Each structure stands twice: as structure tokens, then as C-alpha cells.
Amino acid sequence: MHPINKNTVINITFMIQTRLKGMGVALITPFKEDESVDYDALLKLVDHLLKNNADFLCVLGTTAETPTLTDEEKKKIKKLVIERVNGRVPILLGVGGNNTRAVIETLKNDDFTGVDAILSVVPYYNKPSQEGIYQHYKAIAQATELPIVLYNVPGRTGVNMKAETTLRIARDFKNVIAIKEASGDITQMDDIIKNKPANFDVISGDDGITFPLITLGAVGIISVIGNAFPREFSRMVRLALMGDYANALTIHHKFAELFKLLFVDGNPAGVKAMLHAMGMIENKLRLPLVPTRITTFEAMRKILDELHIKC
Predict the structure, then answer these.
(1) Residues with Cβ < 8 Å from 149, sequence gap 6 or more?
(2) Cα separation of 200 and 215, whole Å?
(3) Across the strands, what pairs with 93?
(4) Non-local CB neighbours of 263 within 8 Å, separated by 6+ positions
(5) pLDDT digits over 128-142, tens only?
(6) CB 234 within 8 A of CB 24
(7) For the range 202-205, what are the long-range contacts, defined as Cβ-Cβ under 8 Å and sequence gap of 24 or more?
């Protein structure tokens, strides 16, 4: 096999960057009553998303309850989803951790056939300094030719990757093409959008602020609620990206109460309750996560009824 030259890598990363826009969906992992992976339900969900305008799929991210999956389950999920998608939309695969060497070994040794880019979270629990975060991503970027999407989610990792660190990484490594920003800090996100290089995008990591973030210059969302409402939520994203803010805002407000309920009992408990109410999956999670409270579930069901979604 011929080695890939630098210009080819730049061209590939640019092509993927242009495709990772719009509504990406952070896929859940359906479980059966016995808590085994429900692969049939997973593939039906993938079909549902592809038929209803999902622009790309994020596989084995946080929403997939990845920390509770075995290596064999993760391999099978990756294989089945890639085969089912069959190149119709890009696949963004979660490959991250708080052991830099282990992430690099994964990147060097695993099979990434059918994977368009990787999503790599800021190291969690260790609480590295900003320089430590930079060096972590430097090592990852130099270990792979795959396009990389950074993932900043301080509510889970315990440390915030500051705008200046994100911009430093974006400028220094051409295969780092975007960031999934879930810091909740609009000022920080706006700072990144204003000062980023042209070959780097900002993607919302929070359904509830997707609309305002797109008005600032973000290119889309890696969505949780998109699992349940791909057609409706992708329409909001596309309208906002086209500059039709009035109609996009109407849809945003339509889902405002669901955004609040979605995460009140943790993710993906909320969206799994929605999908269960819609008859698509069992309402099962793996410990330490548990299903959403009955009061939250009833509130969701009431909103679904109002939205004319069959429960």
C-alpha cells in the first residue's frame, strides 16, 4: 500500500470537514430487558435516522454508555453501524481517554475502515493543565492521519479546555478539523468561532443552545434529542444554517421543555425514555446509570402527546 502524502491528508481532512455539518446524532446503545445489547433495535434506529435526514452519526460516544460496554460489544456496534450506513453519511467514532498512550495504541492498531473521523474527549479525572491538554492532543494528532474532532465537556471531564488552548491546537495540527463544544460558556464558544482558522469548525455539543450557537457561526450539532426527533431537529438546524432564523426559532421553542427534561436525570436516560415512549427501544440502561424518574417520564409523555408523537 502506498503511503499517504501530506497533501492527500490535507485534502481528505478538508473533505470530511465539509461533510461534518448539520445535525449529527450521538447514537444511543439500546439494551434488552436482560441488559444485553439490542443490536436489532440499534440497526432499526440507524435506519430511522438515515431516513429522517441525519447528516452524520457519532458512534460510541458518551451517549452510547460506552464506559459500560465490553470491547467485543464496541467492536460489534462499530462494525454493524458502518455496514448499515454503507457510506451514506459520515461516521464519527469516539476514540478518547485519560491515558494518552492507550489512545495512541488504539489509533495505531485498530481497524478504522469506514470511519471518517474520530471524536476525542478532553482527558477526564486526571485534570491536566492547559499545557497537558495541548500535549495530549499533539500526541494524538501526530499518531494518526484520521481527521480529529476535539470534545470539550468540562461537566464530565472536570477540566475546561480554554479557548486559547483549542485555538492553539487548531492552528498547529491540520488534521484537527473541529471541536464539539459542550462547555456551556457561550462567550468561550464565540471566542473560538471569531478567532479560529478557516480549516476548523465549531459544533454544538448541547441541543438546547444549538440555535443561538449557529447564529454565531457554529456549523451544526452532535445531538442527543436527534435520536428521537431527527426530522424535526435536523429541519431546525438546516433552517438556521440557511439564515432562516425565524422559522428555526419556532422549532427551537417547540422543543424547549424537552431540552430541559432531557438531561435532568442524566444522559442518555432522558432520550431513552423518549424512545421507549415512542415504542422504539426498551427503557434500559446499565449501572451506574438508571432510567429517568417517573415524574420526568410523565412530563415527557405529556409533551410528546402535545407534539402529536404517539406513545
Answers:
(1) 20, 92, 117, 118, 119, 120, 176, 177, 178, 179, 180, 203
(2) 17
(3) 59, 118
(4) 224, 270
(5) 999 999 999 999 999
(6) no
(7) 202/178, 203/20, 203/24, 203/149, 203/178, 203/179, 204/180, 205/151, 205/152, 205/153, 205/180, 205/181
Q: In Å, how far from its chain's centre is CA 296?
A: 24
pLDDT, one tens digit per residue, over 216-227 is 999 999 999 999
Task: Determine which helix (DSSP H) or strand (DSSP E) holds 132, and give its type and residue range.
Answer: helix 130-143
Query: What's the Rg (C-alpha) of the chain?
Result: 19
More confident residue, 311 or 37: 37
- Nearest CA to 157 among 128, 122, 183? 122
**CATH H-level, domain 6-253: superfamily:** Aldolase class I (3.20.20.70)
Q: Known catalytic residues?
A: 151, 180
Count Cα atoms within 13 angstroms, Cβ side, for 263: 14
Q: Which of 216, 72, 178, 294 is nearest to 302 (CA)?
A: 294
Three-class SS of residue 82? helix
Q: How far apart are the first and last CA of the chain?
A: 52
Q: What is the C-alpha to C-alpha distance for residues 31 and 41, in angstroms, rounded to an integer? A: 8
- Kindly give, in sequence order, each residue whose CB lies less than 8 Å from that of residue 268, ignoring residues fewer than 6 positions away: 28, 63, 64, 65, 224, 227, 285, 289
Residue with the three cell numbers 426530522: 231
Residue found by looking up cell 484520521 in the block: 146
